[in-house]
Write a structure and sequence with these properties.
The complex is a heterodimer of chains A (about 170) and B (about 475).
Chain A: H1 2-22, E1 23-27, E2 33-38, E3 42-43, E4 52-56, E5 63-69, H2 77-89, E6 98-99, E7 104-108, E8 111-121, E9 127-136, E10 142-150, H3 154-166, E11 169-170
Chain B: H1 6-30, H2 34-53, H3 62-76, E1 88-92, E2 99-102, E3 106-110, H4 111-117, H5 121-136, H6 139-147, H7 153-159, H8 166-182, H9 186-202, H10 208-221, H11 236-247, E4 255-256, H12 259-269, E5 284-290, E6 296-302, E7 307-311, E8 316-322, E9 329-334, E10 338-344, E11 350-358, E12 361-367, E13 373-379, E14 384-390, E15 396-402, E16 407-411, E17 416-420, E18 425-429, E19 455-459, E20 462-466
Parallel strand pairs in B: 1-3
Antiparallel strand pairs in B: 2-3, 4-18, 5-6, 6-7, 8-9, 9-10, 10-11, 12-13, 13-14, 14-15, 16-17, 17-18, 19-20
Classes of the chains: A alpha+beta (about 170), B alpha+beta (about 475).
Amino acid sequence: MIRLMAPVLVLCLAAVVPVCADYTVFVDPTGLFQTSIPQEWVYQTQPSSDKLSVFYGPGSYNLVYFEVLEPVTYADPHEYLDYVITQLQGPGGLEGFRLESDLEEMDLGGAAAAGTVYSFSAGAGHRQWECLLVVLLDESRAVSVTISDAEENFAATRQVLQVVLDEWRWLF
Amino acid sequence: MVVLTRRAVYKWASAACLVLVVLGSWPAAANGGFMDQFERRVGAGAVPELVKAYGGEYELPVWERQWLDEIFHRLVSVTSRKDVIPYSLTVLNSPELNAFALPGGFVFITRGLFRHLQGNPHMLAAVLGHELAHVELKHGINSVLRQLGMTVLVEVGVIWLDLANAEVVRVASATLLQLLRLGWGREAEYEADILGQKLAAAAGFDPAGAVMLMDYLLSIESDEHPADIFSTHPPSAQRRTRLSQELANFWSNPVKLDESTITKVLRDGRKCEPDPRKDLMGRFTVELRPGANGNTALVVHDSQLGEERKWLGDQHVREAAWSPNGQYLAVIVDEVYSQGVWLLDRYGRVAHKWRDHSGGELSCLQWDPAGERLVYVLHDGRSAKLVVGYVPERADVVIYSGDAVEEVFWWEDGSSVAFYDGIQWHLVRGPQTAPVVVVNPVPRVLERRSFLSPTIERDGDTIRLTRPQLAIP
């Protein structure tokens, strides 16, 4: 039996080891969730707070951030995301906003989430792409996960998001 | 003998009925109906020109707009005319520091003023409360009617039925724009100040915000920039005095605390207080140590460097308390002719010589749980005054004056102050405030400031962070 399991175990370790080696575990300040962040991504004490955690990547424009939002009265993450996108593309929203993908149903640590990709004209004169996920929790709380980079690097940076999502654990 | 034809009798009877109907309907109309509609139309008629004069509408970023709307809606919810006036708030694209309201509920604030007050919801609520108060008290529409001579009851029969006439509205709107430049009058401004302060307090904002606003106006009036806001108003110093006097009305009279309650609070509640001798990070512990000339000096133990230092040199320091948020160390300093409360930063530098009281003795310095206010006792030889001061502002309020105050602490959430007068414990309840909570907030969209990121180099066990050269992209 052990012999039979060994190859499977080796494969599992192979999958885990890169995460352990290149990623560090991040636990959010409110103890709501944890995930893994690439080691070379640097936590930014500004503008991070109890409800916002921001990491800058090794590039010039890449960043990932998590925000705890409350109170949220929506019961469905898809509807909440729809509302958010309406706000972002409306007056006072993001300049040059463009939706790059449809709103999709996703999973974040076992909780139903909704996500999409959009882009906008960034202040530094380039086009910034972002993937935004929202998940609704009990007690009118929501959590958003955003990964962002310049258009030309977004595909590579998005792979980091996949690890962040795969390693996501709720701590309640 | 006057002989009236049947036709003339009908004519006069109709006119008399008309006047009676108009007079009869006056109170009802004035309270919400025809008169409110007229007010709305006059205000609406002046909006386009006003918006144009101030650079058009300005779209705040959605996150700021949500925050501002929440403050405005809370204020509107406590107005008395909210059911008859559809209040609206517009941000104008002007760097000026200004705000105003038109009859009918059109409230405006410039982006310049919003940006200056953005960090302080209480001051912003004071501005918006003041403007809403003008509409509540009908200062604008009454000024227009007065200007046009339309308030004379004799004219009511003629004018009243004609208020919906487009030409009347146009003339009234044009008059309104002229009057707006002159202001509604000194007494109207004082009235709006007081009602605005009450509206802000009722909506869960600190009424001291109005006093802080006046301090802010006084500070910019003395600079090179003239204060555009309220340039048609009475002097800010006088307004500040009145608003400051009103502050005490938002605090209750002292009520006696029964022994079991105070025993429980003293036993359970105060044990939870952070130690005022230690700063939030636990690095600096302060001690008052007897020094030369009978003075007590402020000695600080720095646990990080493992050394002791004297802050404020040989100044006679009588009390010291770290703010719960770790921002300031408040100290009572004895000077030759006065005593003062000074605020030191985390490294012992004097950030603010916050209060200076000559001929009095200060004691019982206590921070509120948020680290935004200090309560202390001022003994002037004859009486003891309990003073609440806002940090680092100049605004303060005497919440009690009596023979003696021996001990003080902030009650529960920090909205009330308990004190012991040597015989009995008392409680003074303050205004209830609530934070601005945006319902259904939009997740933030952050743009990276790459020029602030350090370069990270690893050399064995050493990590080297190199400060980047500041270059704004």
